[in-house]
């Protein structure tokens, strides 16, 4: 398990980039609040939101706290300031 970030309420979070294999899972756990966690992928020198099949950004929420990555790439997670959140990744082999 990789700890992407562990953040208290009152601070924003932006994880480092981690190379994750296809089939890896990212999981968020909320200690307080309901801020969404954005899943982003590195494209060139920038990070962009991972999109679902309909073109909507993938976000982790307390009701949908896990996402399985569809491709191997460098990913990061970001979150706003209102919640205390721990975000992890489980590397697929």
Output mean pLDDT.
97
Distance between the termini: 12 Å
Radius of gyration: 12 Å
- Strand content is over 45%
Write down how many β-strands occur, each being a DSSP E stretch of 2 or more residues: 10
Helix proportion range: under 10%
List the topology elements:
Layout: E1 2-7, E2 13-14, E3 18-20, E4 25-32, E5 37-43, E6 46-49, E7 59-60, E8 66-68, E9 73-79, E10 84-90
Antiparallel strand pairs: 1-10, 2-9, 3-9, 4-8, 4-10, 5-6, 5-7, 5-9
Account of the 3D structure:
It is a single chain. With 93 residues, the chain is an all-beta fold. The protein contains no helices and 10 strands. The strands form 2 sheets. Strands 2, 3, 5, 6, 7 and 9 form a 6-stranded antiparallel β-sheet that branches. The mean pLDDT is 97.
Briefly say what this structure is:
It is built from no helices and 10 strands. By secondary structure, the protein is mainly beta.
Defining key terms:
93 residues; mainly beta; six-stranded antiparallel sheet; four-stranded antiparallel sheet; 0% helix; globular
């Amino acid at each position: 398990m990789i700890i992407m970030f562990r953040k208290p309420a009152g601070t924003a979070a932006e994880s480092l980039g981690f190379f994750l294999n296809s089939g890896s899972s990212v999981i968020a756990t909320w200690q307080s609040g309901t801020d969404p966690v954005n899943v982003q992928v590195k494209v060139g020198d920038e990070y962009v939101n991972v999109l679902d099949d309909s073109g909507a950004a993938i976000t982790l929420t307390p009701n949908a706290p896990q996402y399985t990555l569809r491709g191997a790439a460098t990913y990061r997670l970001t979150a706003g300031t209102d919640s205390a959140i721990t975000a992890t990744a489980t590397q697929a082999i």
